[in-house]
Amino acid sequence: MTIYEVITVILLLVGCFFFLAGTLGVLRFPDLFSRLHALTKADNLGLGFIAAGMALHIASPWAAVKIFFIWFFTLLASSTSCYLIARFQREQDQPGKGKEDRE
Amino acid sequence: MEAYQIYSLTSAVLFAIGIGGVFASKHFIKKIIATIIMGGGVFLAFVSFAERDALNFADPVPHALVITGIVVAVASGAFALALARRIYQLTGEESFNNEK
Amino acid sequence: MSILIDGLLAILAIYLALQSLLAPRLSQSVFLFFAFGLALALAWVRLGAVDVAITEAAIAAGFLGVLFLDALRDFSSTISEKHNNTEAIQSSASRKKIKTFLLPRLAFGVGLGLFLLISLEAIWQIPQGGGLTAAAESMLPESGVEHPVTAVLLNFRAYDTWLEIGVILLGLLAIFVTGGIKIYTKPDVVAKDPLLRQVILFFTPVLFLFGAFLLYIGKSGPGGAFQAAVLWGAIGILLHLGGKPVFAMIPRWVGQLVLIMGLGFFLLMGFVFMSGGATLFEYPKAYAGTLILIVETLAAISIAAALTAIYANLNQMKEEPKENESAN
């Protein structure tokens, strides 16, 4: 096992840990905002670690750049959708409207 | 057990879930989802047969057929959705009358 | 190890399919269906069908998922299947029981049995290496492209692909007939959020570039017209959501031309070469690669336009009933 492989395995394990934590958060957290927090922050960090691990493993600079872009666009899309969902929920939560339809 | 064997068995189960769901679910949207799951089972069977017949590469004809099939399924699904929404707008019904 | 992955993936797909039908709320159903599509896409990667995986993830999970999400605005999403069931039992004639209880299970059993028989027969009875792999491989150098799936789609079985573009247009026409033509009016729901607008602006060129890349790479690897078309269609949908409905912004005849372009050019080319003595959709070998790329580009633009129009029309169906009531 080369040093690269060891680093890859460590990065993948760390990434899996964050995914696990994020999923646990989605399942266990009480309301939408903290769930969103778990889903977008922890999972994106996990995805980042996994992407880094895979980029090391592939060891071709071109593929590594593609993997980086995958991570970057996922980050962008998920943070935007997180913001939009949270904003929608806050508008729903305004006084007089009541809190309903949580997922 | 090869991968294609696992997936061809899966395809049978998916097809059965889909066809059961067409009868069991009442809401239009769920019926449409059920038909698409059914189609997914058929496509999975196709692709697993393609993998079985692989030489240097997997059999490309089933792959092309499945790509065509997916697009056709989506087009018909979209039409079904339009019909369902129209029915709902005109009558307020969310499922067929005789199945309530 | 690989069996473990495949087995888990298979169980996941089955579980998601079941749950998306059994979920009590409609919104849950739709999201689980999303996830089911992605699980299926992973299964296709495992089976070596990367083209199919991209198509599935993009159009079956992505595009259709968006249509379902949009439809949720119409239906009261809190209605539960359970509630319906208890209602059915309360008014229980024995015939109803047969309908709600026996028939689905019967269909499940018969479907499973038949399909299992077919797949077992096909897998363990017919000798391996039947198929058309060898035929496709021997003709691949003459097709003008290096990727076998693209060769089958655009050359060997171009007729299917041509009709497929036609089916999408037919779907669009059918939706027009059902809901009225709504794509030329401004959308009622427009994103006012500045951040969303910026993201849409940012993603438009990125999606365009990525689509073009997929289109071009289809010559030698997984990718091609349909995958590119969905990405370009996503541009149209994003612009629609951002308050810039593409079809309402261009003259009608341009929109109609773009919609019909792929189908028309494909057929025209087929007829031109047919008059030179070839069969329908047979390319002259020397130009096959270039011609395929041109056909793919036009087809991708047409399909993207059709997908955008399908979404825009379904999206606009919402405010219909008022107009209709006043008309009646």
Provide key terms for this protein.
heterotrimer; A: 103 residues; disordered C terminus; C: 328 residues; mainly alpha; 14 helices; globular
Please, could you describe this protein's structure?
The complex is a heterotrimer of chains A (103), B (100) and C (328). By secondary structure, chain A is mainly α. Chain A has one domain (3-93). Chain A has helices spanning 3-28, 32-58, 61-93. The longest helix of chain A is centred in the last third of the chain and has 33 residues, at 61-93. By secondary structure, chain B is an all-alpha fold. In chain B, 79% of the residues lie in helices and 0% in strands. In chain B, helix 1 (3-24) packs antiparallel against helix 2 (28-52) and helix 2 (28-52) runs antiparallel to helix 3. In chain C, 76% of the residues lie in helices and 0% in strands. Chain C has helices at residues 2-22, 26-46, 50-72, 81-90, 94-125, 133-139, 148-156, 158-179, 194-217, 225-241, 246-249, 252-275, 288-315, 320-327. In chain C, 41% of the residues are buried. Chains in contact: A-C, B-C.
Briefly characterize the structure:
Chain A has 103 residues and is mostly helical. Chain A contains 3 helices and no strands.
Terminal Cα span of chain C: 65 Å
Computed structural class of chain C: mainly alpha
| Count of discrete alpha- or pi-helical segments spanning 4 or more residues of chain A | 3
Shape of chain C: globular
For the biggest sheet of chain A, the summary is: none
Principal-axis shape of chain A: elongated
Number of strands of chain C: 0
Report helical residue fraction of chain C.
over 70%
Give the tally of structural domains of chain A.
1
Largest interface: B-C, 82 and 96 residues
Give the count of helical stretches of chain C.
14
Structural class of chain A: mainly alpha
Radius of gyration of chain C using CA atoms only: 23 Å
Oligomer: heterotrimer
- Return Rg of chain A in Å: 17 Å
Rounded mean pLDDT score of chain A: 83
How many runs of DSSP E, i.e. beta strands of chain A?
Answer: 0
Distance between the termini of chain A: 45 Å
- Would you tell me the overall average pLDDT of chain C? 81
How much of the sequence lies in strands of chain A comes to under 5%
- Proportion of residues in helical segments of chain A: over 70%
